Amino acid sequence: MTGTFVGMPTFPVAARAALANSQLRHNLAHATGTIRAKRARVVGEVEEWEQLRLAGAGVKESALVDLATHLERLEETLTANGATVHWANDAAEANAIVASIVKRHGAEEVVKVKSMVTQEIGLNEALAAEGIAAWETDLAELIVQLGDDLPSHILVPAIHRNRAEIREIFLARMAAAGRPAPADLTDEPAVLAAAARTHLREKFLRAKVGISGANFAVAETGTLVVVESEGNGRMCLTLPEVLVSVVGIEKVVPTWEGLDPLLRLLPRSSTGERMNPYTSTWSGVVPGDGPQEVHVVLLDNGRTNALADEVGRQALRCIRCSACLNVCPVYERVGGHAYGSVYPGPIGAILNPLLKGAGSDPQTDSLPYASSLCGACFEVCPVRIDIPTVLVEQRAAVVDAHRGGRPSADHFWEALAMKGAAVALSDSRKLGLGERFTRLGLGVARRFGASPWTSARDLPAAPPESFRAWWKRTDGGRSPGGRP
């Protein structure tokens, strides 16, 4: 089983360590550059791309505006289709529901479709505590699991690994988890994929229970949708006797028609493909075809908190394409582990604080600052989430969450400087007086009070003359010494 993100350091600490890893930076630059180029090519083919983005954002937003109604409709249609619907307020409830279903069927192992939400709730670890082995079947997830590693990307969890490292993981770890890797295994991608396929096939054939998430859940028809590129998901969704799907409540889509723009936006934005090789849909139980017992766990886990945030709620439109990660200059240099969460990159920097709440812990509070605010993430987001604006709002929320207590030593000088600036900027005469002491103030700050600031920024030197003094001396630039 893989480790967890519990106890991870704050982003600045983790990022500094990641920047020292030259192999990691090389792996990330190569992978994200390749994905960006593929995306740009297929997006460029669609003349009405911006209209498509607006349509996709509209579908997701319409679901969020009346989420309770659509969820009730989803429960109704799923139940009519023969599925059993469960509601989970948090991770503990969801894990308990899944574990009870698996144990009731006497299963000691399950096969899993790649799922961010099951990683979010720590389902694998919860099942392991009950003596149940949860096997990841997505190739990249399998690499992470066998390597006792942590995912670092939404689409490609093992993006931080190169193929030589993957070969070593397969040779060293596959045998303990099932069918071993061939002794003559090379690091050719096709050979590595074939070894994984052989290893997983026996797990697919003997599994009684499959576990999935869902990319979308259609309220109108009671249909869950999973898109993927390898076919492993379809094996998990069709072969086991029992299927359990854990679905975040924000994944609901009101109508079947609403899938149209989303299924055109997602593959181009994620894998750089015109359509996903495998799009699986299922609506409850079909006698004699596929799983004969279907459970759907609808998960909150902080989503209603995010929904209540008028600015931040747009993060719930996210369709987990990872386009924002692939264009982010910060992510490309530090990777996903530095974010200390299942959801890394720009979307993780806003989604985690929204789900957990500002002030919940220092690691989460550090995430809204893990950005240069360059805006590239918004430009590529297929559902037009204004991530930079939400980041700024979340930074304010973090500050507000700590206003009630005494500022820490790291924040004391910054808070004092901001109070001084508020006084000076409130009156032009005060500002003019303060400008006379700029050189002295910067000298004092540089020596005594600015170390938290200057550890990541340059403190500028004082100008030889203030603008106000220059203006007065040159008569607004018209006298000698001023610009014409």
Can you tell me about this structure?
By secondary structure, this protein is α/β, with parallel strands linked by helices. Among the domains are: 226 residues, Rossmann fold (3-Layer(aba) Sandwich); 66 residues. The protein is built from 24 helices and ten strands. The strands form two sheets. It has a six-stranded parallel β-sheet with strand order 1-10-7-4-2-3, sandwiched between helices. It has a four-stranded mixed β-sheet with strand order 8-5-6-9. Helix 3 crosses helix 12, helix 9 runs parallel beside helix 10 and helix 16 packs parallel to helix 19.
Would you identify the CATH architecture of the domain at 11-138 and 207-304? 3-Layer(aba) Sandwich
- Please report the total strand number as a whole number: 10
**Total of helices:** 24
CATH class of the domain at 11-138 and 207-304 equals: Alpha Beta
**Biggest pleated-sheet summary:** 6 strands, parallel
CATH superfamily of the domain at 11-138 and 207-304: NagB/RpiA/CoA transferase-like
Output the strand order for the largest sheet.
1-10-7-4-2-3
Give the overall pLDDT as a whole number. Answer: 92
As a percent range, the share of helical residues equals 40-55%
- CATH topology-level name of the domain at 11-138 and 207-304: Rossmann fold
Distance between the termini: 71 Å
β-sheet strand percentage: 5-15%
For the CA atoms, what is the radius of gyration?
26 Å
Unreliable runs, pLDDT <50, ≥5 residues? none
